[in-house]
Specification:
Mean pLDDT: 97
Number of helices: 9
Bound molecules: pyridoxal-5'-phosphate
Strand content: 15-25%
Low-confidence stretches: none
Number of strands: 13
Distance between the termini: 31 Å
Largest sheet: 7 strands, mixed
Order of helices and strands: EHHEHEHEEEEEEEHHHEHEEH
Structural class: alpha/beta
Helix content: 25-40%
């Protein structure tokens, strides 16, 4: 098997070093004679791993003490329901900003639980930009305002943490979590599914400010209540032990890379490079407003559908894999998460130049 270049949007490529370490430790973790998979979660080594993972995440994102960190199950989509169940009392209202496929999914699900207002939407412009926060309609009674910081399917992203007034900001950061520094204090709650920038699918990280944890509805399942999980130190049910262990290794890897600011600088440079290749000729095109282009998911089109199919086929022959765009959007999508090696990005860009010369 030669090198494969995996551009999947998620589950996605993991850092090579983490995979090698996990393989080495798989059957015998640190000389304990057992795998991390076989260890109990309330005694022995696992509680320390979970604590260490939380401490490293605190360090990486400078998370202040009045924010709690939870490792939960059900992925990001479960949070589409759990955010309203935990934060929105019956009859109360919340605001959603609609900027693409995932924010639309989040708001659709939330409508089952309360009065949901759309504070701003870029749907009529084909989700090609992020509406200016100053123009958002936020009723004062809203319990929270929900955003999706990086639209994985559309390739459009917030470039700054939006400035909000009193209404707490809730953010789905699944696909750009740990890809750039953020100002945590601008947010009331952040959630991020792990399979894009952290690790295994199913794990979702929730960061929540402590004044927001007391409004869970009675019918919220206990294991999905932020309040009950925090009260039981995240051990109300068995956590995703192996996934948390892998996340801990990924956090180590990010620290070794110099932290989130360093990674952000690298990400920014290489996507700029990538977008300039797209913009250089008429052949490839990207219609996202330049300021809002995603650094994680680069979406682009070719002049015809036939050329796009040929592109995907030829790419695959060169082991450039999983480049088909999201079903809702079409075209081509290259996901360039933190763990994507520069060599794979270079291989794709070389292929794109060659393909354009052959077919352009
Ligand atoms: C992938 C993704 C999701 C869905 O994650 P699941 O783990 O499948 O629930 C939600 N939001 C965003 C922004 C995503 O990229």
């Amino acid at each position: 098997m030669g090198t494969v270049h995996n551009f999947a949007a998620g589950p996605a490529v993991m850092p090579r070093k983490v995979m090698e370490l996990a393989r080495k430790e798989f059957q015998d973790w640190h000389g304990r004679g057992m795998s991390m998979l076989e260890m109990p979660f309330t005694s022995g080594d696992f509680p320390e791993i979970m604590e260490s993972a939380k401490q490293k995440l605190r360090q990486l994102l400078e998370i202040p003490d009045h924010y709690h960190i939870l490792f939960m199950q059900g992925g990001a989509s479960a949070q589409f329901s759990l955010v309203p169940l935990n934060l929105l009392p019956t009859g109360a209202q919340a605001v959603y900003i609609e900027t693409g496929h995932w924010s639309a999914r989040a708001l659709q699900e939330a409508q089952r639980y309360g009065l949901i207002k759309i504070g701003a939407s870029s749907r009529h412009e084909g989700f090609t930009h992020i509406p200016e926060p100053a123009t958002w309609q936020i009723p004062r009674e809203a319990r929270y305002c929900h955003i999706t910081t990086n639209e994985t399917a559309n390739g459009v992203a917030y470039q700054e943490d939006p400035e909000m007034g009193e209404v707490p900001l809730v953010a789905d950061m699944t696909s750009d979590f740990l890809s750039r520094p953020i100002n945590i204090e601008k947010y009331g709650l952040i959630y991020a599914g792990a399979q894009k920038n952290i690790g295994p699918a199913g794990l979702v990280i929730v960061i929540i400010r402590d004044d927001l944890i007391e409004t869970a509805r009675r019918e919220t399942p206990a294991v999905f209540s932020y309040q009950r999980q925090i009260a039981s130190n995240n051990r109300l049910n068995t956590p995703l032990t192996y996934s948390v262990y892998l996340a801990d290794l990924v956090f180590d890897w990010i620290l070794e890379q110099g932290g989130v600011a360093r990674i952000a600088e690298r990400n920014r440079k290489r996507t700029q490079h990538f977008y300039s290749l797209i913009d250089r000729h008429q052949f490839y095109s990207n219609n996202i407003s330049p300021h809002y282009r995603s650094t994680m998911n680069v979406c682009f089109q070719l002049p015809t559908k036939q050329l796009e199919e040929a592109f995907l086929q030829e790419a695959e022959l060169q082991q450039l894999l999983h480049l088909r765009g999201h079903g809702d959007v079409g075209g081509i999508r290259a996901s360039l998460y933190n763990a994507q090696p520069d060599s794979s990005v270079d291989a794709l860009m070389d292929f794109m130049d060659a393909f354009r010369l052959r077919h352009g």
